[in-house]
Amino acid sequence: MTLELKNIIEALLFSAERPLTPKELRTILAEAIDPENPGGPEAFRNVREAQIAATLEELKVGYDTEQRSFQLLEIGGGWRLVSRPEFAPWVQSLLDEARPQRLSPPSLETLSIIALRQPISRADIAGIRGVEVDGVVKTLLERDLITIVGKSDAPGRPMLYGTTQKFLEHFGLRSLDDMPRAAELRLQAAALKTAEEKQASQPGPAPAAATTATPHEG
Amino acid sequence: MDADYKVKLEVFEGPLDLLLYLIKKEEVDIYDIPIERITSQYMEYLSLMQLLNLEVAGEFLVMAATLMYIKSRMLLPEDQQVTDTEPEDGEDPRWELIRQLVEYKKFKDAALQLAQREAETSRMFPRRADAELAAKAADVPLAEVSIFDLINAFNTVLKKAQEKEDFREIIEEQFTVSDKIEELLYTLRDRTELVFSEVFAKASSRAEVVVTFLALLELIRLKRLKVQQPEAFGEIHVVKVA
Questions:
Q1: Can you give B146-196 as a three-state secondary structure string?
Q2: Right CATH for B140-240 from 3.40.50.970, 3.30.2420.10, 3.40.50.20, 1.10.10.580
Q3: Is it the case that residue A27 has pLDDT exceeding 60?
Q4: Per-residue pLDDT in tens (0 to 9) along chain B, 242 residues
Q5: Which of A9, A133, A158, B21 has its CA at 20 to 30 Å from residue B111's CA atom?
Q6: Which of A83, A74, A140 lies closest to A106, judged by CA?
Q7: Does B126 sit within 8 Å of A105, measured CB to CB?
Q8: B121:A170 CB<8 A
Q9: Domains of chain A
């Protein structure tokens, strides 16, 4: 067995029961010791995160081209091995798992709004959906898909909500940028915000100029 | 119409949902909504809901009022339109509603795609630890050990002691309950729990088993020890009370 970075990372992914980030992998490589063969781990002590990220990509592509029954997925910043969807019937049977409960359309709409406009208050979500959202928000909080991320400065200091890591995992999203229509819907929010800030800071044009310069991530 | 009569009616989450449906059904341009046509359709739908005794949420009525207001404003010649509530003169009265509809539709589409992601993701399984499954099992609260379970366990130990006795010379020994209490506490000085059989491991006679059991009961009564049974019908554990 050759001790290549690719093999080491593969072994770690195989044994891990949670997504591993390139940063975590780097720490593991830096800290691993082998009293019998000190030279082994030492050779990988100073591997850079970028190199680890590239290796993860390489493994992912490898599994895809070799048509393995599992694949390497990037979810919420971490990487993990998962079985391919084609094998779901058997794996489901193995895990003796009932069909997972799917979220209702109102929950999905509310989640989309929160994911793309966070931090956002219930009143603002209701403004977009045209219906009150108290019940849906409560359910999403209970399922740990959203969380309270702060309080607004608006009158009444309403709670602000944001999505969780579990949200990304539930939908298999790499990050919030991976959300459907993310670029378009977040850009709008940014534009609105800038307009509001401009209005709010009429006397001094300097801060408004600073906010318009905020680069858009997409 | 009979009030009990049930019609399967498409359920609209809210007024925006209903408006989007009407716009699609009428095949009209969302940016140029024929407000009169859509308003009358909307009102028709509301009266249908009421006719069917469906609860019409307040939001539907607010939207009805908004639609009527927009309609009335559009009927007026432009120079006679009341503009005191609108900050910008000459703005299309439909604009605010259109903006809201377009935005809502985008999120609705995003939600549909999200549902697809959810369906795909739910078919991919990560590796799962036994620990995770064990943690689930451990969530089940420990069964309380009844006095009958204890006596049952005691009986088993007693029987074993009897067997031992048969093959041994009888050495006369005196045990008191308080001796055994001290002994038990000493055994548990640097441990947090013992398995029930361990408690009696050193007992060599029936008398000793009985005295040890009495010591155990006394310590439970004094709340120095408690007994648990992690698995149904499994071994009883004697645990030190912190």
A1: CHHHHHHHHHHHHHHHHHHHHCCCCCCCCCCHHHHHHHHHHHCCCCCEEEH
A2: 1.10.10.580
A3: yes
A4: 444 444 445 567 789 988 998 898 888 888 888 888 889 988 988 887 777 666 677 888 889 999 988 888 888 776 665 555 555 556 777 888 898 999 999 999 999 999 999 998 888 888 775 545 544 444 444 555 666 677 778 778 877 777 665 555 656 667 788 888 888 888 888 888 888 888 888 777 778 888 888 888 888 888 888 888 776 667 788 888 76
A5: A158
A6: A140
A7: no
A8: yes
A9: 5-95 (1.10.10.10), 102-180 (1.10.10.10), 181-218 (no CATH)
Nearest CA to B40 out of B19, B57, B55 is that of B19
Strand partners, B218: none
Cis-peptide into A180, omega within 30 deg: no
Distance from CA of A29 to the nearest CA of B (A): 22
Asked if B13 and A132 come within 8 Å (Cβ–Cβ), the reply is no
Q: Which residue has the tokens 């432009």?
A: B78
8 Å CB contact between A159 and A121 = yes
CB contact under 8 A, A82 and B125: yes
Chain B residues at the A interface, defined by Cβ less than 8 Å, are 13-17, 57, 59, 63, 100, 103-104, 106-115, 117-129, 131-132
Where along chain B do the CATH 1.10.10.580 domains lie? 140-240
